[in-house]
Amino acid sequence: MKNVYRGPGLRRVREAVGTGAVAAATSLAAVGGLSAWTTAGYAGSPAQIEVREARVLLPVIPGRDTNAYFHIVNTGGTSDRLRSVASPVVGRGVELTAHRMNATNGAYRERTEAVDVPAYGEVEMSPYGAAVTLPADERWRPGNRITFTLDFVRSGRVTVDAVVRPVTLGSAS
Question: How many Cα atoms within 13 Å fall on the side-chain side of residue 133?
């Protein structure tokens, strides 16, 4: 008797159909979930950066470096990164910094490459976190305005005027 090929067995056909049905059901569930996510406005929403407050502190010792602080809000569904800050008024020496502590609890500022701004979140720069360190001008007075350009990875450049404020005792305003 010769061996005659009779095709796949009934068991193999059932297994193939079952596997295909599982793959189809999984794909439909994924597409449905992504559609719901998109319809809710969470997918593809770009970063939308606003700077709600900007201030520069007068240094306690005239002519020394000082800090600028920005309240940055991202109303978009994608995170962004502040990668640099510049000022035509200040020129050179403007840099992003972060507050750090050493082993003996001494505080210092360290240059940082970027500040992350989360989706639907905000960054409130302060003496205890991220800041912009810059050389102060002895001619600055409270109420003066200094223009800064904040450069974000996704949102591009945002220009804002920061108000010069004196340092008040017990305040990081």
Answer: 17
